[in-house]
Design goal:
Layout: E1 27-35, E2 49-57, E3 65-75, H1 82-88, E4 90-92, E5 95-99, H2 103-116, E6 124-125, E7 128-129, E8 139-143, H3 158-166, E9 185-186, E10 189-190, E11 192-202, E12 205-216, H4 230-233, E13 251-259, H5 265-273, H6 275-281, E14 290-298, H7 321-341, E15 345-346, E16 352-353, H8 358-367, H9 369-372
Helix pairs in contact: 2-3, 6-7
Length: 376
């Protein structure tokens, strides 16, 4: 089930899979870590886990570097590797997303996987590559799944990271409670992983903007779409936390934006900022307890990373506005796809979060049909 199947209104034209993988060459893989049964006291020593790893490979499983940029709406979160990404303008290899307390093991495991697959950036002695001397700074982001997952049990292991990387593929990809999104909560419903894309036409040339989110943010009362107060209209489905009273809006969202348009790093910074607009359209982005961090990369200019002078393609700022719009639209829909795919989950200590009730959403859409029809 995806958000469009519920009749929800969206603007813009999506790609073939309505996913970040509509950007040619981009692959996505998951490792979903589920073990143990929920009970009243799932201690940190128990086998209970509802977590995982998501891997995004800009050019698949080969040595590559892409121009990249980032933006931070609210900094209560983590994304490793940013200092060098900011200074160099490049991201090397895959980008991964997991839970807050697994960033370290995921970072180390990505480094090992890169070494084993000869995917490190090469280091040179003059013009001669030096085997075995490569290194880089993996980009790993996180959101907190400790309400549903035994986060202090540290259940993500090296094999899970390798599984996510090795299983990455193009085409249609799963959403909802998969990979790093397994234990996440969005607008107080079951959230997780979502994706969407937009096609951008410049004259006769077509480009693609794709977005993947790990959505773990927002409050129910704020959830709206195109003026439809979705969160307020839904009846029942109230979260149940027997031992917790979390701060409203606590959580985070990571948004990864990909495009095949030839933008430079400073332009990708600007495109990354537009994820905040998509989040805000749905009522999110208003809480200091949330880490809202965004990454954008371009798969163009494949040979830009070089020890020698190279020529690169460049998209002038005068043509960037449609890409801003596409990034915001695709972020909005990616979040709603995460919600649409989310299924009720009973987590650690019987904490329960309900999936978005599809039948109710369809009825609410009909109630506000006068608004929905405006976007056809």
């Amino acid at each position: 089930m995806r958000a469009r199947d519920l009749g929800l209104p969206f603007e813009g034209q999506c790609g073939a899979f309505n996913a970040i993988t509509d950007v040619p060459g981009v692959e996505v893989g998951y490792s979903t870590v589920i073990s143990g049964e929920p009970r009243e006291n799932n201690g940190v020593d128990s086998d209970f886990a509802r977590t995982g790893v998501t891997a995004i490979l800009p050019r698949g499983k080969k040595r590559s570097a892409v121009f990249a940029g980032h933006a931070v709406l609210n900094g209560n979160g983590e994304m490793t590797g940013l200092p060098w990404l900011i200074d160099s303008g490049f991201m090397h290899g895959p980008m991964t997303i997991t839970n807050t307390h697994s960033v370290g093991i995921v970072r180390d495991s990505v480094s090992k996987w890169m070494f084993l697959h000869d995917a490190y950036p090469q280091h040179f002695n003059g013009d001669t590559p030096i085997p075995g001397y490569g290194y880089f700074y993996p980009v790993v982001a996180e959101t907190f799944d400790g309400v549903l997952n035994n986060i202090n049990g540290f259940k993500v292991k090296e094999e899970h990271v390798f599984e996510a990387l090795d299983s990455a593929h193009g085409g249609a990809i799963a959403e909802g409670s998969v990979g790093g999104g397994t234990g996440m909560i969005c607008h107080q419903f079951k959230g997780g992983t979502g994706t969407s894309s937009r096609r951008v036409m410049l004259g006769e040339k077509e480009f693609t903007v794709g977005v993947l989110v790990q959505a773990n943010h927002g409050t129910r009362k704020e959830l709206c779409i195109k003026g439809i107060p979705l969160g307020r209209e839904i009846e029942g489905c109230e979260r149940h936390y027997p031992q917790l009273a979390p701060v409203p809006g606590a959580g985070s969202i990571i948004a990864v934006i990909a495009t095949d348009a030839p933008f430079m790093p400073w332009q990708l910074n600007k495109i990354a900022r537009r994820a905040a607009i998509g989040i805000g359209r749905l009522g999110g982005g208003n809480h200091t307890s949330s880490g809202d961090i965004f990454l954008a990369f371009s798969t163009a200019n494949e040979n830009a990373f070089s020890p020698k002078p190279v020529k690169i393609d460049y998209m002038p700022d005068e043509l960037i506005d449609p890409f801003f719009i596409a990034a915001a639209q695709a972020t909005e829909e990616a979040i709603m796809n995460a919600l649409a795919a989310g299924k009720t989950m009973v987590g650690r200590n019987m904490n329960t979060v309900y999936g978005l009730p599809h039948d109710q959403v369809k009825r609410i859409v009909e109630k506000y049909r006068h608004i929905v029809d405006l976007y056809k």
